[in-house]
Amino acid sequence: MKKIIAILVLVVGFAFNTNAQEVKTVSLEQTKGEFTQKQITLSEGTYIFEIANNNVGHNVGFVLAPKANVKAHIKNAYVTAQVKDNSKETSKKVTLKKGEYVYFCPLNPTPQYTLIVE
After folding, report:
1. pTM of this prediction?
2. DSSP labels for the chain?
3. S-S: 52 plus which of 29, 84, 104, 116, CB 3.0-4.6 Å?
């Protein structure tokens, strides 16, 4: 019985460890009117976006959408709360497939930047 419990603990621990490694964080910084990262290239996978507000002077946000349909915002990519001046917030997990996306902040406001998933 102890062996079975030990094996189950190892399997569950390995599963959690594998899932944790699959999610990557993409850190982006906003200054007044722009993101400091002008283009991003990623591989297919699951990501969390971390958005930093560097002295913008007001709250900022984050929008990610397919380039082919900019109005089709990926809601899980929104930060979970508006990013206050000189702080950071994160999005929920977002699974990205191959293609081109745009990211921007309508609150800052910023231009639309390109995110490519290969």
Report:
1. 0.82
2. -HHHHHHHHHHHHHHHHHHHHHEEEEEEEEETTEES--EEEE-SEEEEEEEEE-S-SS-B--EEEETT-TTS--GGGSBSS-B-TT-EEEB--EEE-SEEEEEE-TTTT---EEEEE-
3. 29
